[in-house]
Amino acid sequence: MSNSLIEQEVSKRRTFAIISHPDAGKTTITEKVLLFGNALQKAGTVKGKKSGQHAKSDWMEMEKERGISVTTSVMQFPYRDSLVNLLDTPGHEDFSEDTYRTLTAVDSCLMVIDSAKGVEARTVKLMEVTRLRDTPIITFMNKIDRDIRDPIDLMDEVEDVLKIACAPITWPIGMGKELKGVYHILRDEVIMYNVGQGHMIQDSRVIKGINNPELDEALGDYAQELRDDMELVEGAANKFDYDLFMAGELTPVYFGTALGNFGVDHVLDGLCDWAPTPQSRVSDLRTVEPHDETFSGFVFKIQANMDPKHRDRIAFMRVCSGKYSKGMKMKHVRLNKDVSISDAVTFMAGDRTQTEEAYPGDIIGLHNHGTIQIGDTFTQGELLKFTGIPNFAPEMFRRIRLKDPLKQKQLQKGLIQLSEEGAVQVFRPQRSNDLIVGAVGVLQFDVVVHRLRTEYKVDAIYEGISVATARWVECADPRKLEEFKKKAWDNIALDGGDNLTYIAPTMVNLRLAQERYPDVVFRETREH
Ligand code: G4P
Q: What positions does the entry give for GTP binding (predicted)?
């Protein structure tokens, strides 16, 4: 395998996720982006909210009923000379853990903002997550076919609230029913908007030069307004700066309407021109460069029963270095075991195909028969482990109980599998036969009961339980750990991966335990 081939493939790739508040237009943009990638003949089948074409599983049925997206799907498509990998992030607040881990697998993010509403709560949270890795951000101000807020105000708000400088790349001309088009500041050209071309690639008139008299003829009074706006922007707004962008400190801003399929191509152009190619990754041994000759990757997501026909679990792996080829041998580092992988899959808008080869930045799906966990590293022999893919201590707890007590085994199996997937966390107190489910958001509880019923055929119900929090515990001194386990027995539990945890009925209890056992470390997150 020559290094230069890997370098070539790496330079083509852009792996990104969309971050936005629900309803800002993430699904619509995904559809249009795929339209450009010719991945879909006609945009409109991603979520299938209305079309009902994508009845993948009952779980996804539920997702549709609620109009939320709880899954992370991956789509690859070509655009210009690039190969773009788009990772869908769960939109609902309750699934922040999954979202967090998905954002560890991308190199840049597209932030979508509803231009009538501005910065919304969920966007603020997601931006906090991207900050942890200083991920470069591109911004799309969506819905300019509606009455939107003043563009300068919108950018001010982004700068104030999200603490990232804005550099406008395009600028709206008119809005709502009076939307005329956008001015591309860097290219010095006006791209005219055609209403009603949302389902196709816009065939737009382009007028070169802001002082071109053609503009006055085409735009009427808006031509002068645009020139005035640009004078203002020239004086007041930031200019695009590649280094600041790469440092996550400045975002290029585009205006458009995803529904009208207008402006989406400008963002894609920006993504191909500026967004980082697959970046290096930190491991416990060394920094892994994408063009390293040997293969490596990590699992950031596991999803069960994506397709009722297959009834399997898929582990989503981000390729970090080297090349995957069908049939290759990989080292499953945690188990220190060699495995032959011949049936990895790639994803296209919900469909999957066998992967022949994959390069850094690509996401491949491995069939998981219970041996793969979130955070697992695979290599071509080296015993290194990628870091930075955590579990978070849940904030809500319930005891889960069967309606039919004979199915205890299925319940355990289902819960353990769902916890491996990261859908929920499960704790087994040592002093009783209870099963405690812990979640970061309340909706997770509903999803789990629903999935237990449809996928594992067990009817379970919840009961309240007085647990305030859980901590993963560690102690360097085995003797002290044993003593702690004995004394704190009533509060000791094992999680889904058999890791030792301390279950605290109150925060005060936790604090007292921490004071009492100073040699024991109580962790709020657990690295997989
Ligand atoms: P999400 O995935 O971020 O939650 O948002 P989604 O794309 O589902 O969009 C939310 C709503 O906003 C949808 O309307 C969608 O049609 C609309 N929308 C998206 N982009 C634009 C845009 O550029 N302009 C306008 N005017 N609307 C836009 P809905 O009525 O909730 O759903 P639907 O019944 O139309 O599917």
A: 20-27, 88-92
How far is the centre of ligand 1, averaged over its atoms, from the C-alpha of 229 (Å)?
A: 28
**Residue 91, pLDDT score:** 54
Give the residue with greater pLDDT, 199 vs 289. 289
Sheet holding 137-142, edge to edge: 74-79, 82-87, 13-20, 108-114, 137-142, 250-255, 165-168
What pLDDT score does 49 carry? 42
Q: CATH number of the domain at 281-379, out of 3.40.50.300, 3.40.50.980, 3.40.50.450, 3.30.70.270? A: 3.40.50.300
Q: What is the pLDDT of residue 306?
A: 57
Residue with the smallest CA separation from ligand 1 atom 16 is: 259
**pTM, rounded to two decimals:** 0.82
Binding residues for GTP: 20-27, 88-92
Spatial separation of the C-alpha atoms in residues 57 and 279, rounded to whole Å = 34
Ligand 1, closest atom to CA 91? 4
**Six-digit token pair at 315?**
């582990």
Residues with CB under 6 A from ligand 1: 20, 22-28, 49, 91, 142-143, 145-146, 257-260
Q: Residue 217: its pLDDT value, please? A: 96
3-state secondary structure of 164: coil
Question: Domain 17-56+108-274 - what CATH class?
Answer: alpha beta
